[in-house]
UniProtKB/TrEMBL annotation:
It is a multi-pass membrane protein. InterPro entries: NMN_transpt_PnuC. Its main location: membrane. Belongs to the nicotinamide ribonucleoside (NR) uptake permease (TC 4.B.1) family. This is Nicotinamide riboside transporter PnuC. Pfam families: NMN_transporter (PF04973). Required for nicotinamide riboside transport across the inner membrane. It comes from the Bacteria. It comes from Stutzerimonas nitrititolerans.
Length: 187
């Protein structure tokens, strides 16, 4: 357990908690967290995770912009359901992205676990995009991805990060509940 991992995971808990509460400060805190984790994963030679966290940094800025746009009743973006078409296209793109990234990482890098790393990366990006758009389904996808990440990081003995993803799973369950409740007045 390195100090870098401790700081990044602490910021991660704060960022996800703020996301559950629909507080736009989740995005700048999340930006700090993903930046630190990119550095951590670079040292661990988990190159798909480095790429994931670099793209997460861009998505943190996009999410912050999306969440502070005044298109909702309270001057913020409203929670909504993704359409079936949006879900199918998103899942298909994530699956294709996983295959492409996994193949590249397996062939051209020294990446450890290139295929599961790439799959978790691709589906995390989709979950993050849906979160920026405040789609309820982001939490369902985060729950699935986070559970898989627990095993992925535990296998590598990154116990703090595995524990963080356990906490992320619980927070994602809370997020699903909270965001579904936020939909109730809109019905």
């Amino acid at each position: 357990m390195s100090p870098l991992e401790i700081i990044a995971s602490s910021l991660g808990v704060i960022a996800v908690w703020l996301t559950v509460r629909q507080n736009p400060w989740c995005w700048p805190i999340g930006l700090a967290m993903v930046s630190l984790y990119a550095w951590f994963f670079l040292e661990a030679k988990l190159f798909s995770q480095v790429l994931l966290h670099a793209v997460f940094a861009l998505l943190q800025l996009y999410g912050w912009w999306q969440w502070t746009r005044a298109d909702g009743a309270h001057g913020r973006r409203n929670v909504s359901w993704a359409s079936m078409q949006e879900m199918l296209i998103g899942l298909a793109c994530a699956a294709l992205g996983a295959l492409l990234l996994g193949g590249l990482m397996a062939r051209y890098t020294e990446a450890l676990f290139p295929w599961p790393d790439a799959a978790l990366t691709a589906f995390s990006l989709l979950a993050q995009l849906w979160m920026a758009l405040k789609r309820v389904q982001c939490w369902l996808l985060w729950i699935a991805v986070d559970v898989l990440y627990i095993g992925f990081f535990a296998h590598q003995t990154y116990w703090l990060t595995a524990g963080l993803y356990g906490l992320f799973t619980l927070l994602a369950i809370m997020g699903l509940r909270e965001w579904r409740l936020a939909l109730a007045p809109a019905r």
